[in-house]
Amino acid sequence: MNVLIIGNGISAKSAYELALKTKDNPFLLIGKEEKIEEKYRYYLNEELPQIINKFDLFVISPGVYFDDERLLYIKQYNKKIIGEIEYAYLKMEHKPFIIAITGSNGKTSITEALYYVLSKLNYDVYKGGNIGIPFSSISLSLSNSSFLILELSNFQLDHIDKFTPNIAIITNITPNHLDKVENYESYVKSKLKIYKNMSVNNHLIYLENIDGIIDFKGNKYIIKNNLNHLLVNRSIVEKVMDILNINNYEEYLDEFKGVKYRLEKINNHLYHDGKSTTPESTINAIKVINNNDNLIVIIGGKNKNLDFNELINIKVKKFIVYGEVSKILNGDNIINVNTLKEAFNKYKEIKDKNTILLYSPACTSFDQYENYIKRCKEFDQLIREEGYV
Q1: 5 by DSSP, 3-state: which?
Q2: pTM
Q3: How far, CA to CA in Å, does 301 sit from each of 35, 194, 279, 296, 372?
Q4: Neighbours of 231 (CB within 10 A)
Q5: Bridging pattern class, strands 57-60 and 42-44
Q6: What is the pLDDT of residues 204-250, one digit of tens each?
């Protein structure tokens, strides 16, 4: 089968490799300015009109959004379009037990906690999806006795067809990626696709605050939306263990230290929550710390057309705001600067012996950094230079 894979990132290349292994005939579709290794065959975006009828299947990478010109053009020809997640699912030679996790916040923490616990219990367990491990890179490694834990974004769920998890988890749904989706309603619909193919024999776990929009006929488990999201995440993991009838896991769940850069406690006066990309996740972090009078919060980055009003109206000692979002956020409790380094220096100027610092950007990193890891490592360097770690 001739397969055209739209994109040039890790998911696209992984799908390409999977296609070769399963005797498909793959090509990538990329921009002329993009660099590509010699081992990959490709066409340029402008060649699409000439080559579109050569292909039986079109595979979409997660970074191809709803208004992408290539996607819109292919749709005009009524071609079969699926995502990398769907392609990997169809290519599996065996049927593992799949636990799929989506939501606006908390996906990675739950994915990693489940993986950690099942690994410690010596199960044959794999993780992938939105955590940076393409499903297609592990698709052929799975057996009928494997557990597969997939973190799935709305973009990955947009182009599923037959993909069916045994357990689906929706952590929450709050506004996110509004700069890259048609509207909030479409974002919600994408998230709910996680259970579109599930039957009455499957299991859905979700938070109580989205109960009104859930229409699922199988086994449903509603988790109370506790103010402490760490306890919510733990409750979700415990429910999965209960469904799997797995016991003696508590010590490993207690051992789990959390995800790096996700509300990581450096010491009693410093929290590193650099993975935060939404106001909601920063609000949750503030609630967990629960010492607002002494709390200075550094936020900043690229805005995703999200509403910051609830966040900046929380009474804390100060918000220090850097990056693109600093141009739109103002107030008596806000200090505006340009860069993360300037924000950290400002914190040093105004802190006292009781001050607690929370670095929780509430934005994406793409105004000043290649990805969130880059900004997290810069913050690591800043606190290391001060002797905080």
Answers
A1: strand
A2: 0.82
A3: 27, 29, 12, 17, 10
A4: 13
A5: unpaired
A6: 999 998 999 999 999 999 999 876 778 899 999 999 999 999 999 99
- Retrieve residue 337's tokens: 């600067």
Q: What is the DSSP string of 317-356?
A: SEEEEESGGGGT---TTEEE-SSHHHHHHHHHHH--TT-E
Under a CB-based contact definition with an 8 Å cutoff, are residues 266 and 299 in contact? no
What 8-state DSSP symbol labels residue 213? G
118-140 as b/e: b if 16+ CB within 10 A: beeeeebbbbbbbbebbbbbbbe
How many whole angstroms from its chain centre is CA 273? 15
Q: How far is CA 2 from CA 18, 25, 29, 136, in A?
A: 13, 5, 13, 17
- Compute the half-sphere exposure of residue 180: CA atoms within 13 Å on the CB side of its CA: 15
Sheet of 167-170: strands edge to edge? 125-129, 147-151, 97-102, 167-170, 203-207, 219-223
**Residue 303 pLDDT exceeds 70:** yes
The single-letter code of the amino acid at 146 is: S
Contact (Cβ atoms closer than 8 angstroms) between residue 318 and residue 297: yes
Summarize pLDDT for 343-383 with one digit per residue, the tens.
999 999 999 999 999 999 999 999 999 888 999 999 999 99
| Sequence letter at residue 278 | T
Please give the structure tokens belonging to residue 251: 């010590």
Q: Which of 239, 258, 250, 279 is nearest to 364 (CA)?
A: 279
**Whole-number average pLDDT of the chain:** 93
Cβ(327)–Cβ(338) under 8 Å?
A: no
Q: Cα separation of 293 and 355, whole Å?
A: 9
Structure letter (DSSP) for residue 150: E
In Å, how far are 180, 188, 220, 266, 307 from 302, measured between CA atoms?
13, 22, 37, 25, 13
Is the predicted pLDDT of residue 180 greater than 80, yes or no?
A: no
